[in-house]
Amino acid sequence: MDRVRDLASKRAAVIFTKSSCCMCHSIKALFYELGASPAVHELDQDAKGREMECALRALGCNPTVPAVFIGGRYVGSAKDVISLHVDGSLKQKLIDAKAIWF
Amino acid sequence: MADVSPRTDTSTDADTEDKNLRNALSHGTIASDGSDKSRDQKTLRRLAQNREAARKSRLRKKVYVQQLESSRMKLTQLEQELQRARQQGIFISSSGEQAQSMGGNGALAFDVEYARWLEEHNRRVNELRGAVNSHAGDGELRIIVDGILAHYDDIFRIKGDAAKADVFHILSGMWKTPAERCFLWLGGFRSSELLKLLINQLEPLTEQQLMSINNLQQSSQQAEDALSQGMEALQQSLAETLAASLGPSTSTANVGNYMGQMAMAMGKLGTLEGFIRQADNLRQQTLQRMHSILTTRQSARALLAINDYFSRLRALSSLWLARPRE
């Protein structure tokens, strides 16, 4: 959990993924489209990947990837991100965290 | 204090009580001077509200009975179809099991459920059309509109279960008519396209509404593109996995490799259901958001316009299927 929180706080937008996960690819594409440059951490390429995955599961992220953090705060999985984007709050969160400017 | 008969049931005695009050006022048994006037007005208002509540209750009851009757007809129809299908030797699991596990007949079971849902949907939309054409009040419209939106939730839930059982059937769109399949995207319609055709139908919109609807259209399009990109990545990954198991020799190493690659490919196919789920989630969220931006009357017009559009697509499909061929 510490490593998750630590990495999540280092950039305005942070996404935890797995290299084989195609839904992660979708969420990354969405962030790039919005002009955000998220930090991407692939759990299967990280030595502490297993522990981090447990930590994400404990946060309620199901499936565990993609797991999105904005401004250091846990936002949710793919479903949450899409829902927030539809009602306009995703963009606002990114602006508030200074991940994007407009 | 006004002398009115005791009430036992609001919905039936509201009119009687109202008549009594009016009689009492005209016969002078109630003083109609200043001090009682506000009390009488309050009573009249309360009676009016009771009448309205009674009317709404009668309307809801009418709708409920209509739904029951159409369900009964549909049930008889389905039982007959089932009987016919059984006679033709098609295996259909007993009704008790069907709710739990669709097994090999997931596709057929879903098609039946979808047809049932569509019929109910059309019935509700016709009710809405009737209400709009007869200049019904906002309250009545809201009940019908909310009902239609809640009913949309039903089909998304049913699709979710069906995708778990047979994702390729949902993706194929074979449960939709041919012309609808033209526009198929991840097992359903594109919300962004729907919004595009609605924008013209919904005028007059306030500036705020216009901006919100445009933003919604853009957001749903961005989400659709993102999901499409994920699907392309999935296809590419699947292709690479299968190509990796191709090889000239038939050594034991290659066979082991083959099994490994197949296992990986199986894993990738498993993620398809997730994409359908997110696509449906997007459709659901977009409908809800659209409804929250619009007034009740505008939502009603939107739902009617959407239904008109899809009805035309379905009619086109029928024409196409019946076209004369050499």
Automatic annotation (TrEMBL), chain A:
GO cellular-component terms in the record?
Answer: cytoplasm
SUPFAM superfamilies attached here? Thioredoxin-like (SSF52833)
**Protein name as catalogued:** Glutaredoxin-C11
Q: Pfam families, per this entry?
A: Glutaredoxin
Cellular compartment(s): Cytoplasm
Main site of residence?
Answer: cytoplasm
- The source organism is Olea europaea subsp. europaea
List the signal peptide residues: none
Tell me the ranges covered by the Glutaredoxin domain, including all copies.
14-75
From TrEMBL, chain B:
Q: Where in the cell is it found?
A: Nucleus
Q: Where is the BZIP domain?
A: 40-84
Transcription regulation is among the record's keywords: yes
Q: Is Transcription among this UniProt entry's keywords?
A: yes
Question: SMART domains annotated for this entry?
Answer: BRLZ
Q: Which residues form the signal peptide?
A: none
Residue runs in coiled coils: 61-88
Task: Name the InterPro entries on file.
Answer: bZIP, bZIP_sf, TGA_domain
* Any Pfam family matching the protein: DOG1
Q: Where is this region: Disordered?
A: 1-42
Q: Name one GO molecular function term.
A: sequence-specific DNA binding
GO biological process, any? DNA-templated transcription
Quote the cellular component terms of the Gene Ontology held in the record: nucleus
- Keyword tags: Activator, Coiled coil, DNA-binding, Nucleus, Transcription, Transcription regulation
Q: Where is the DOG1 domain?
A: 107-323
**PANTHER family registered for this protein in UniProt:** TRANSCRIPTION FACTOR TGA2-RELATED, TRANSCRIPTION FACTOR TGA9
According to its UniProt record, which protein family does this protein belong to? Belongs to the bZIP family.
- What name goes with this protein? Transcription factor -like
